[in-house]
Amino acid sequence: MASSDEQGQGAGLEPVGRVHAVRLTEQLRAAIGEARRAAVVLAQRVRDAHRARVWVALGYGGGVSTRRPSWGSAGRRRTG
User: Fold this and answer.
1) What are the strands, taking DSSP E only, across the chain?
2) Residue 55 CB-density burial (10 A; 0-12 exposed, 13-18 middle, 19+ buried)
3) CB 27 within 8 A of CB 19
């Protein structure tokens, strides 16, 4: 059997009690629900932006371009 270190749990971690385990599980379920809702909102906004052809209003035209829109740091590559 693999040690707790090999399983990615770290050394010296003790199992939690039932009450704490239930609380942690509820927190995980809530976080998963929030992530799902955020994904739905993101998908709706992307769909709305696409339907509105926002790239035209931003000056990117209708053709294929190698220029990337500057939507924050998400699409930027770090150099150096």
Assistant:
1) none
2) middle
3) no
The answer to whether residue 69 is domain-embedded is no
Q: What is the pLDDT along the chain (80 residues), one digit of tens a residue?
A: 445 455 555 666 889 999 999 999 999 999 999 999 999 999 999 999 999 999 999 999 766 555 666 777 655 555 55
71 lies in some domain = no
As for how many domains the chain has, the answer is 1
Q: Is residue 2 part of a domain?
A: no
Answer whether 0.70 is exceeded by the pTM. no
28: containing domain: 18-57
Q: Are the C-beta atoms of 37 and 30 separated by less than 8 Å?
A: no
